[in-house]
Amino acid sequence: MIKILFLLIWTSILAFAGEKLSIPPYIALSAFILIVGLFFWGIYKAVKTKKTVYVLALLPFILLMAGMFFI
Fold it and tell me: What gap in Å lies between CA 12 and CA 6, rounded to an integer?
């Protein structure tokens, strides 16, 4: 568990080491973690319940990917 925590902290430090962001890095990192978590939760619920309404949970991830494409 400590290795995973260290990896997450070190990765976030390296990701924002030289970047000038308009928002604080902890908000950007929190939003990214939330979007990825929502992505996997949507896949899990869609597969488990076989309801397509949970596919809407994938929308923030798709928008994030599109935004990263245009950056």
Answer: 10
Q: What values do phi and psi take at 12, rounded to 5?
A: -70, -35
- Quick one: pLDDT at residue 69? 78
Q: Which residue has the tokens 């494409």?
A: 69
pTM value? Answer: 0.54
Whole-angstrom distance, CA of residue 14 vs CA of residue 24: 15
- Render pLDDT for 35-52 as a digit per residue (tens, 0 to 9): 888 888 888 888 888 887
Three-state DSSP state, 1: coil
For CA atoms 39, 42, 46, 48, give the dihedral sign.
positive
